[in-house]
Design brief:
phosphatidylinositol bisphosphate binding, 2 domains, alpha/beta, 42% helix, Phosphatidylinositol Transfer Protein Sec14p, CRAL-TRIO_dom
């Protein structure tokens, strides 16, 4: 994983790296992320990041701490860790360009976004990791306290049969304002349409919006298919 803080506004940077938010994010990544993270490379960090990371470092699991590389403004040190062919062109590499328009549109920071979390394509193992009590609690804290933009609504669809019971256990402990933003639809997409106008919902879920397209990731997967097959034996670097 390469985490680039360059396009984050100062407000977003402060939200990401203040002690509480940073601690929630670290716990989410080291204990709850639904795939193995071989390495995390953090680039274009603000001037105070090294000092903050030094405070947290002794409390991280040793195995996880060794996977985190802080490069500051130096992309040359990133190239010493990751082959250029796996680094997007945006950072001087040879890989497909990475484009996240949303993070560059600062008005989204205060207007907010609507998130649709579809669990249909998660394997049973990934679902269990996402919704077991510890992982779910870390993820919820991450979303309500540390997410670097405003979440207006979170719609969760195609949930496993036990999700409602698990959510009912956590619901009383959530902040009221955040709890009201979470809508669990189970397998019912019709209830999703009652909350979000069809023109804003991707065609993949029966809406009128543009089809959800993760073309850059798909292109990279096809391009490096042989390498990914190799990664399956020992995890991945994303």
């Amino acid at each position: 994983m390469i985490l680039d803080l360059a396009d984050f506004t100062f407000l977003q940077q402060m939200k990401l790296v203040n002690p509480r938010s940073a601690w929630i994010m670290i716990n989410f990544l080291q204990d709850s992320f639904p795939m193995r993270l071989r390495e995390i490379h953090i680039i274009n960090t603000p001037f105070f990041f090294d000092a903050l990371f030094a405070c947290f470092s002794p409390f991280l699991k040793e195995k996880f701490r060794k996977r985190i590389k802080v490069h500051g403004k130096s992309l040359s040190s990133l190239f010493s860790c990751v082959e250029p062919k796996y680094i997007p062109q945006d950072w001087g590499g040879m890989g497909p360009s990475y484009n996240n328009k949303a993070i560059k549109q600062t008005f989204i920071e205060y207007r907010g976004v609507i998130m649709i979390l579809d669990l249909a394509d998660f394997t049973f193992l990934q679902q269990m990791k996402l919704v077991n009590p510890r992982s779910a609690w870390i993820m919820i804290n991450f979303l309500q306290d540390s997410f670097p933009m405003r979440l207006r609504e979170i719609h969760i669809i195609n949930t496993p049969f036990f999700f409602d019971a698990l959510f009912a256990c956590f619901s009383p402990f959530l902040k009221e304002k955040f709890r009201k933003r979470i809508k669990v639809h189970g397998k019912s997409l019709s209830s999703l349409f009652s909350c979000v106008e069809p023109k804003y919902i991707p065609q993949d879920w029966g809406g009128m919006g543009p089809s959800y397209n993760n073309k850059a990731m798909f292109t990279a997967i096809v391009q490096y298919e042989d390498k990914i097959r190799e990664w399956r034996n020992y995890g991945i670097t994303t």
